[in-house]
Amino acid sequence: MEVEVRKFEVFRFRPEEEEEPTYHTYEVPCMPEWVVLDALNAIKDDIDPTLSHRWSCRMGVCGSCSMLVNGRPVLTCNAFVKNYEGTIRVEPLSNFPVVRDLVVELDSFMAKLQSVKPWIIRKAEKDLGEGEYLQSPAQLEEFKQYSMCINCCLCYAACPVLASEPDFVGPAAIALAHRYNLDSRDEGNHERYDAIHGHDGVWACSYSNECSQVCPKHVDPSMAINQAKLTGALQWFKLLPKRSFT
Hints:
Number of helices: 9
Number of strands: 7
Low-confidence stretches: none
Distance between the termini: 55 Å
Structural class: alpha+beta
Strand order of the largest sheet: 2-1-5-3-4
Strand content: 5-15%
Mean pLDDT: 95
Oligomer: single chain
Radius of gyration: 21 Å
């Protein structure tokens, strides 16, 4: 197969050596089927071992290789080099502090995720001998799409609200909270209410829809946010109890 040399303009920032970020240009021999992550790995392996970037599964599952490619948040393991023309610019995810080069700190995201308690909450667990909690296909369908989130944080990098209001809980955390609120087995809606409907919750969203546009798993966080707004309003007026939406 024919190898093509492509130019990559890569964000570099080594806080122990530099006060400001810079961009380094690398010429990388690329195979036709390469994705951007392959090129970054080639830079690190063969050209500049000081480059830092994060990746793991290379299958679009773990979400750890999220970066900006030509300004758009993508999974670099799914971004084929052949789909870009000219020099390809690679940068860390926006709206997150940069640790080094293309690696960002995710502590704030993890804290927001924990704040909405994205797990099934039961008032009382039944005995194992009573069997599993059954669910109909229709009940599953209500929340299934929100279960596809891989916590890649592309939606946070695309969110214009987070750019100016960093305490906003954000699309993925709200979508996952909504997923459990919709789950017929869950009884934790009231425990998530303050986190979702507080000052930094769903009402901060301006509905730009950028989060849904960049999701690699076709989750629709903006729909989750708007459904959560409606549910929250009905609950505030006591027209709906603070428990499972279904």
